[in-house]
Design goal:
Structural class: alpha/beta
Shape: globular
Largest sheet: 7 strands, mixed
Distance between the termini: 46 Å
CATH class of the largest domain: Alpha Beta
CATH architecture of the largest domain: 3-Layer(aba) Sandwich
Number of helices: 13
Order of helices and strands: HEEEHHHEHEHEHEHEEEHHHEEEHEEEH
Strand order of the largest sheet: 4-10-9-8-7-5-6
Radius of gyration: 21 Å
CATH superfamily of the largest domain: Type I PLP-dependent aspartate aminotransferase-like (Major domain)
Helix content: 25-40%
Strand content: 15-25%
Number of domains: 2
């Protein structure tokens, strides 16, 4: 009799994987910050799966809302009104900053960014869009074209008109500077590129408020406000990709809230439904909304604002509010930050630690002076990073590794005892990295 793993190996293509190297550990149960495999092994989910299970697994209020909506009606075409769609759009407008007022629902973050490109080009009558080299905006054709990391080149050529700039990566500054005596060159560089490209040709600048899977780069406090000024100077739309940073991940409702910056558009997914049901969104400001009152929105999806997904989203946002999870993310984030700094003092393999709220990365190096990565970027063999991941799983902690980074992003409902359990395991397993030096 075939196992679930056998069937997947035979019939399923895994994303971002060489199929012959896949492993097939079956997950059968999850609750709160924990999940279990088919052998009964229990894991603390210290990366919220793909940094999307913000509240935690199987929250009873969210499950109940999905069931209730399924009993009422499972699907309504976007051309009809739907109560869960209307209510979720209202809640999004309530919690997003400034005058972000109206939402186009999509199936995920990549589609949200694709449609934000379309809206930006239609509204501005301009063609080019700017993004950053160390960025990830999704795997659909428009979103992967925006993306800067190594997942983009294998599928090029992408959509035309994308221009890329460097990011605020203070540990490895592209300009050889040291903050704060750097003149914020990473932001002024964006302005210079816009001038070279002709500002009148640039529709939008897409930015992750905190860079996600390329390393959790928390920008200097002046960076996003300065980017907002530069975009305003040239009439360029600022689009915040909040797919990872949204919904409490950084200790605020949205990443931009840490710097009191209001974008012209915001894209989101992941935490809006916890991944229980796929959902994404593009949120636009009042000016763009007014424009679309009199001009065609050249965007459309069969499942835009799917009732089951939106009901899930309404319940999710209500849980954030009722259980004060944004506040918990901020409080647990301070504990996380202190412990990471303590680890950095202890482990010579740690080159840098970066965190904001419950969104963090440990960057491992062979030598602190040269900053040579412990594992090669985009290398085929995980090497010591694979050993560290195995060590963590043996201790019952799941952490998402990539390159020479460990990404720490537990559910924002995590308590102090669970947080300590995960950090203790990481602390112990990092001895392997130290020995590798």
């Amino acid at each position: 009799m075939s196992t679930v793993g056998d069937l997947e190996r035979k019939h399923v293509l895994r994303s971002w994987a060489v199929q012959g190297k896949n492993t097939y550990e079956e997950i059968v149960k999850a609750e709160g910050c924990w999940f279990w495999n088919s052998e009964g092994k229990k894991y603390l989910d210290f990366s919220s799966q793909l940094i999307n299970i913000n509240i935690g697994h199987q929250h009873p209020k969210i499950i109940a809302a999905i069931k209730e909506q399924a009993d009422k009606i499972c699907y309504v075409t976007p051309s009809f009104a739907s109560e869960p769609r209307a209510k979720l759009a209202e809640l999004i407008a309530k919690h997003t900053p400034g005058d972000l007022v109206k939402t186009l629902f999509t199936l995920g973050g990549a589609e949200a960014n694709d449609n934000a490109i379309k809206i930006a080009r239609a509204y501005t009558k301009r063609f080019k869009v700017i993004s950053r080299y160390r960025s990830y905006h999704g795997a659909t054709y428009g979103a992967i074209s925006l993306t800067g990391d190594p997942r983009r080149p294998p599928v090029e050529p992408g959509i035309p008109g994308v221009v890329r700039v460097f990011e605020p990566y203070c540990y490895r500054c592209s300009f050889g500077q040291t903050y704060p005596g750097c003149g914020l060159e990473c932001a002024e560089h964006v302005r210079e590129v816009m001038l070279y490209e002709d500002p009148n040709s640039i529709a939008a600048f897409f930015v992750e408020p905190v860079t996600g899977t390329n390393g959790v780069f928390v920008p200097p406090k002046e960076y996003l406000p300065r980017i907002r000024e530069i975009c305003d100077e040239f009439g360029v739309l600022l689009v915040a990709d909040e797919v990872m940073t949204g919904w409490g991940r950084t200790g605020k409702w949205f990443g931009v809230d840490n710097w009191n910056v209001v974008p012209d558009m915001m894209t989101m997914a992941k935490g809006v439904t916890q991944g229980y049901i796929p959902l994404g969104a593009v949120v636009v400001n009042q000016k763009i909304s007014d424009y679309l009152d009199d001009n065609m929105l050249w965007c459309g999806l069969t499942y835009s604002g799917h009732p089951l997904a939106c009901a899930c989203g309404v319940a999710t946002v209500n849980v954030y509010e009722e259980e004060k999870l944004i506040e918990n993310s901020a409080a647990m984030g301070e504990i996380l930050k202190k412990r990471l700094n303590d680890m950095k003092e202890k482990h010579p393999s740690i080159g840098d630690v970066r965190s904001i709220g419950l969104f963090a990365a440990i960057e491992l190096v062979k030598d602190r002076d040269t900053k040579e990565p412990l594992a090669p970027w985009n290398g085929p063999d995980p090497g010591i990073m694979g050993q560290i991941s195995k060590c963590l799983k043996e201790k019952g902690v799941y952490v998402y590794p990539r390159w020479n980074y460990l990404f720490l992003a537990p559910p924002i409902a995590i308590n102090e005892e669970e947080l300590k359990f995960g950090l203790d395991a990481i602390d112990e397993c990092l001895d392997l990295a130290d020995k590798a030096l």
